[in-house]
Each structure stands twice: as structure tokens, then as C-alpha cells.
TrEMBL record:
Keywords: Membrane, Transmembrane, Transmembrane helix. It comes from Planomonospora venezuelensis. The chain crosses the membrane at residues 46-65. This is Uncharacterized protein.
């Protein structure tokens, strides 16, 4: 659950930034570009929420199953705290991105260069939300990608030689 949920969250956010938001600029009617991008994100949101929920349930299960290692094995507690911080950042970035997307949805059809790229004639409130989303579209895959990397580190820390060495190091450092 942990890894599949993470794959959904990371992969969907990256595809949205590269594919969906990028492709919206190809819609011929400039007034439909944000609507088309929003329609895609609206379809993705329930899948993304399910992926995030799966990841959180899986992460909680892994933490409970490995609480002894987290407490005793050198380095595991630190990397677990890093995972928590990255998860919190990714959740906040995802929620804020969704809030900005709602601003675009409420605006309806407005002229724009793309889903996250305002034009000169884009209303100010919509343009502001688009500029913020243009940054946030990279924050979510950045944070979730970093989570994938830290998860790999956790996998390495579970090797028997790492567990033994980390536990012994932790015992002797006290």
C-alpha cells in the first residue's frame, strides 16, 4: 500500500505538470484552456486521494511494524523524521494546489495561455492563482520524489547487516 500509493501520488503529479498542464496550452480556444486542465485534474483528484490514503495507511503500518528499529537502529529514527517532514510538505502542497485549482474552476472560462500560464488578458485573481500553481505543480512531485528516495534509504536500512550494525552502533553510542 505504501509504495503503490506513493507511485500514484508522485506519478500523477508529475504527469499533470508535464502532460496535462502542458497540453492545455494546445487547446485552440484560449478561453477553454484552464477549463480543460481543470477537467483533467477533477478526474484525477479521486484517484490521487485514494493513492494518498493508501500511502498514509501503508506508512503507518510500516512504522508500527518497525517501531523497534526506529527506536534502536542508528539512522532509522532520523530518516523516519525526514519522511514525516516530506510527507507533511507533500500533503500541504497538494492541498494548496487543490485550493488554487478551485479558484481557477470558479472563474469559469477565461482567456489564458495554458492551465497554469496566464495571458495578458487573464483576470488578475486567476493570473495570480495560475502563477502560484505554476510553481506548485513542481513542488508536489519534488516532495513526493524525495519521499521515494528516502523510502529507498529505508529499504537499504532493512538489510540484515545494516540492522545489526545500526543496532550495535546505537547501543555503543549510548
Amino acid at each position: 500500500m505504501h509504495d503503490i500509493g506513493m507511485a500514484i501520488w508522485f506519478g500523477g503529479s508529475l504527469m499533470g505538470a508535464v502532460g496535462l498542464n502542458g497540453a492545455s496550452s494546445k487547446v485552440s480556444d484560449r478561453r477553454e484552456r484552464t477549463r480543460v486542465a481543470n477537467a483533467g485534474w477533477d478526474r484525477w483528484t479521486p484517484v490521487n486521494l485514494a493513492g494518498i490514503a493508501m500511502h498514509l495507511v501503508g506508512a503507518t503500518g510500516l512504522l508500527m511494524a518497525n517501531k523497534g528499529r526506529v527506536a534502536r537502529q542508528r539512522g532509522v529514527g532520523s530518516s523516519s523524521m525526514l519522511k514525516l517532514a516530506l510527507t507533511t510538505a507533500a500533503l500541504a502542497a497538494t492541498a494548496y494546489s487543490r485550493k488554487l485549482g478551485a479558484t481557477l474552476e470558479q472563474a469559469g472560462e477565461v482567456p489564458a495561455e495554458g492551465g497554469v500560464k496566464p495571458g495578458e488578458d487573464t483576470p488578475a485573481e486567476v493570473a495570480k492563482a495560475q502563477r502560484q500553481l505554476r510553481v506548485m505543480q513542481w513542488v508536489v512531485p519534488g516532495a513526493t520524489g524525495a519521499l521515494v528516495a528516502v523510502t529507498s534509504l529505508h529499504g537499504e536500512q532493512q538489510r540484515p547487516t545494516e540492522v545489526l550494525g545500526g543496532v550495535l552502533s546505537g547501543v555503543f553510542s549510548r
